[in-house]
Amino acid sequence: MKLHGTMRVNGRGYLEIGGCDAVELASRFGTPLYVVDEQLFRENCRAYYRAFTERHGGQVIYAAKTLFTLAVSRLVEEEGLGLDVVSGGELYTAQEAGFPMSRVYFHGNNKSPQELRLALEWRVGRIVVDNLYELELLERLAGELHVRAGVILRLTPGVEAHTHEYVKTGQIDSKFGLVIENGQALEGIKRALASKHLVLHGLHCHIGSQVFELESYAHAVNVMMDFAALVHRETGWAPAELDMGGGLGIYYAAGDEPRPVEEYADVMMQALTERAVAHHLPVPRLLVEPGRSISGPAGTTLYTVGAIKDIPGVRKYVAVDGGMGDNPRLALYQARYEACLANRAGAAPEEVVSVAGKCCESGDMLIWDIRLPRAVPGDILAVSCTGAYNYTMSMNYNRLPRPAMVLAADGRADLIVERETYSDLLRNDLIPARLRRERRLNVASVR
């Protein structure tokens, strides 16, 4: 397994994260356990801030959907980033954490009236409008509240990124955004400009996730600025902000080749400047929304090895006490991961095994065909780069409680998400009067 951030193998041959012994973390907090390397999370935030804000005067907006808790909100705020939220729940979390609402950007393709009202009442910095229906709804709600809302329009540029089908978003056939090609985008801009209660600040697009080809971003910038020039000719308006979304790819396993954040920033800024000058437009402020590339490498999940099933000549399965309930990405996207035995992190691999989860589902696999030392029940398996879209996509399938999460730094581990209990699983369950045990027993006695 490739070591990330503060990871190291200590003198006992155990994996350390943030100066904390992973085996001791597993013993103290139980498994499965999400471990966040605070130093690496902060360093990733700072790399973006330096590349976009300090170097080019842009704005970095962290995508909360990748990893978000009250504590994570505080980290993002302290590092000077904005916050991209996509639901009332994420917005509420930011509010409860005390995150500055002026730095919040509210996304989503089907925001409810209640969510939009919250955003207006709490005065979020920008509402990223996804469609014409939302534009009309937001205009009405802002009028009722007697406020003016700052908005950015999300457009579909027709740019297809080379990534998994489920995380492509920039192509024309997408549930997100107003399509440029068929005139929807221009219509949306004209309506926004005519609004009494909305202030149009800029344009937004997002071409996909886990993207390595920076040329795709440069092409998307060109498409957006060509459209901005058309809009300027039609209306006289030019965007003050251009939000290019996120999606920069990270290392998960061999073959992944992430590009430096500085290069990512320079490629987009160069394309933006050249196109703006060519069209005689002011250069808009460049906004980006990184998530995975900040939180992903900073996360590791610890599991305890249980049953081992060897099918000679076919495959050897090593089962752990988690799986698709805490990490559904392999089932959804055929995601790849690397791992090591945290209690034998320096040991040489001896065999090829496949790591299985414990859900009653054939697709509940964490890693296919990985070389590990010979595993035995009780070993601690550490899976790297699980900071993004693991906790936030976790679920209670098979009524499994979701794991705890700790923040590790300088040899200290702080609990930031408590482990769910069996009682938590029943918290919202109700038994109607007609199904109460007494009635059921009476019916049974009649039979």
UniProtKB/TrEMBL annotation:
Function: Specifically catalyzes the decarboxylation of meso-diaminopimelate (meso-DAP) to L-lysine.
E.C. number(s) listed in UniProt: 4.1.1.20
Quaternary structure, from the entry: Homodimer.
Keywords on record: Amino-acid biosynthesis, Decarboxylase, Lyase, Lysine biosynthesis, Pyridoxal phosphate
Keyword Transferase: no
Protein's name in the database: Diaminopimelate decarboxylase
Catalytic residues (positions): 360 (proton donor)
Gene Ontology biological process terms from the UniProt entry: lysine biosynthetic process via diaminopimelate
Amino-acid positions noted as binding substrate in the UniProt annotation, renumbered to this chain: 292, 329, 333, 361, 389
Orn/DAP/Arg decarboxylase 2 N-terminal domain sequence ranges: 42-295
Pathway of action: Amino-acid biosynthesis; L-lysine biosynthesis via DAP pathway; L-lysine from DL-2,6-diaminopimelate: step 1/1
Recorded family membership: Belongs to the Orn/Lys/Arg decarboxylase class-II family. LysA subfamily.
Necessary cofactors: pyridoxal 5'-phosphate
Catalyzed reactions per annotation: meso-2,6-diaminopimelate + H(+) = L-lysine + CO2
Residue ranges annotated for the Orn/DAP/Arg decarboxylase 2 C-terminal domain, each copy included: 35-387
Lineage: Bacteria, Bacillati, Bacillota, Clostridia, Eubacteriales
Residues bearing the modification N6-(pyridoxal phosphate)lysine: 65
Gene Ontology MF: a single term: pyridoxal phosphate binding
Amino-acid biosynthesis among keywords: yes
PROSITE patterns in UniProt: ODR_DC_2_2 (PS00879)
Residues bound to pyridoxal 5'-phosphate: 247, 289-292, 389
Alphabetical list of InterPro entries matching this protein: Ala_racemase/Decarboxylase_C, DAP_deCOOHase_LysA, De-COase2_C, De-COase2_CS, De-COase2_N, Orn/DAP/Arg_de-COase, PLP-binding_barrel
